[in-house]
User: Which sequence fits this backbone?
């Protein structure tokens, strides 16, 4: 099954089982805006909880805030968003469709890299254990040719962006013979910049209203509250401020399901440090953030670092943690060394002194910042992508069966335990509900009695429930139930009294958080 087919199945599965719906679907939907369904809301909240507790609960020098979406318009002047928060756009003259020029170029590079990967896979299959990938990359003519194209385009594109040369960006598209995905036409307009911020009016009447913006990121809410938090919390450097919140970007080319949307949620932490220690803390947070992802049990092939070649003018270092989505490796989280740019700009534009008095050094200075920023929706998509599996199950009679299973990390699964009475009679439903009444204060439980027990198991597999217990007639006799494991499908008999202990060990968020301190 191709990666494109897998992605389509994940999207379909997400809707069918109540994870994600198209926003305003009964009115034919709103492009690039999505609603989280009953299971999606639970999973999303569990991801938030994992991030928040790992940041705020596990670090005594990191605190959380919740800043407003609306902010004074000068905030966005100071941050540079009003003047420079732009995307390079290009129109196809025949299809009349508008595209982000950088995305067209990135897709072109990705296709070339796909050709290289295809050659490597063919060679690996042909030569087996004797295959030397490094040597193959250095000697194979087709690989060398495609790699040269990749390197040339990347160099030209980086230079064009550094020089703000939009004519050169268009020329790259022309020279690479990039065609419109809709019409196949190569007739393009000039590239121009488009500001991504949504604006609205604040005031009781239009004539006297002032223009304000929906925030395009959550970080500025942290920076403008630096003094409030530092003074009220009596915080000493180094310390961090964390926030989870909605942000809005008027994406012209929103695509790939919830990967790029117009309304999205961010989980960001700004870590304020002494100037000169940014390299040390950048490396520290880079390692911590990768460990946070890998604690969920992901295979090493799904995650990688991608260091930025082009740095923002104020940055000393930047890296992305990339995830191997069904459409390739893409940015999941960013770790950035931002120096004192943001606080200094807000100090300049506000006229307020935003500094830290260092008792040890006996001086005041504007702190430097190391940022970690992850898109919650992208993290949600990464979790879904890694979890979706189609399995063939061999039966004792020689026949086989198919199941779709969402192998979600148990600690963040929307439902942690399904309680299933074998039948709808003989007091089994009453016993099942009594079990839920005892467990519901600690675990998210789900009761289901419709259909055969086999069908119910399959449904729980499809929504990612890690454990299910079946209440049968033996339960009424000896107070035991059958515990079924989602991943292994193993079933074993246990005492009802043992259920809380087993669940705490298997699905507790605390167990997951403890991995981060190992």
Assistant:
């Amino acid at each position: 099954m191709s990666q494109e087919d897998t992605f389509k199945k994940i999207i379909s599965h997400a809707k069918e089982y109540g994870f994600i719906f198209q926003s305003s679907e009964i009115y034919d939907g709103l492009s690039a805006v999505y609603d989280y369904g009953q299971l999606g809301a639970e999973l999303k909240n569990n991801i938030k909880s994992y991030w928040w507790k790992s940041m705020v609960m596990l670090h005594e020098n990191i605190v959380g805030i919740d800043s407003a979406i609306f902010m004074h318009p000068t905030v966005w002047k100071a941050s540079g968003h009003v003047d420079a928060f732009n995307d390079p756009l290009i129109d196809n003259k025949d299809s009349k469709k508008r595209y982000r020029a950088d995305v067209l170029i990135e897709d072109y590079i990705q296709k070339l890299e796909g050709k290289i990967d295809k050659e490597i896979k063919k060679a690996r299959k042909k030569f087996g254990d004797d295959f030397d990938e490094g040597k193959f990359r250095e000697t194979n003519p087709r690989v060398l040719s495609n790699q040269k194209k990749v390197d040339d385009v990347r160099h030209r594109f980086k230079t064009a962006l550094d020089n703000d040369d939009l004519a050169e960006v268009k020329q790259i598209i022309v020279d690479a013979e990039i065609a419109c995905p809709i019409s196949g036409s190569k007739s393009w307009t000039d590239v121009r910049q488009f500001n991504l911020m949504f604006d609205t009016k604040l005031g009781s009447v239009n004539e006297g209203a002032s223009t304000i913006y929906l925030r395009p990121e959550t970080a500025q809410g942290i920076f403008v509250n630096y003094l409030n938090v530092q003074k009220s919390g009596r915080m000493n450097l180094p310390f961090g401020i964390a926030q989870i919140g909605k942000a809005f970007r008027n994406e012209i080319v929103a695509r790939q399901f919830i990967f790029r949307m117009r309304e999205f949620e961010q989980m960001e932490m700004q870590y304020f440090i002494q100037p000169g220690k940014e390299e040390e803390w950048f490396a520290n947070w880079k390692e911590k953030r990768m460990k946070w992802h890998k604690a969920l049990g992901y295979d090493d092939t799904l995650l990688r670092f991608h260091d930025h070649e082009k740095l923002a003018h104020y940055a000393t270092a930047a890296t992305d943690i990339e995830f191997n989505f069904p459409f390739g490796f893409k940015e999941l989280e960013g770790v950035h060394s931002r120096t004192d740019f943001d606080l200094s700009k807000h100090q300049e534009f506000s006229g307020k002194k935003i500094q830290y008095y260092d008792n040890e050094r006996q001086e005041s200075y504007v702190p430097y910042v190391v940022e970690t920023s992850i898109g919650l929706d992208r993290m949600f998509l990464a979790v879904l992508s890694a979890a979706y599996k189609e399995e063939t199950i061999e039966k004792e009679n020689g026949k086989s069966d198919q199941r779709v299973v969402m192998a979600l990390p148990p600690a963040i699964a929307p439902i942690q335990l399904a309680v299933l009475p074998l039948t709808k009679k003989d007091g089994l439903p009453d016993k099942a509900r009594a079990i839920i009444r005892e467990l519901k204060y600690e675990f998210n439980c789900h009761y289901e009695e419709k259909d055969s027990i086999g069908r119910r198991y399959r449904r729980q597999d499809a929504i990612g429930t890690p454990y299910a217990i079946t209440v049968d007639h033996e339960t009424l006799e000896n107070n035991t139930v059958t515990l079924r494991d989602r991943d292994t499908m193993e079933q074993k008999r246990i005492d009802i009294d043992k259920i809380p202990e087993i669940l705490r060990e298997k699905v507790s968020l605390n167990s997951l958080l403890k991995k981060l301190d190992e």
In short: Residues 101-127 form the longest helix (27 residues). The first strand starts at residue 20 and ends at 22. Residues 201 and 207 are 10 Å apart (CA to CA).
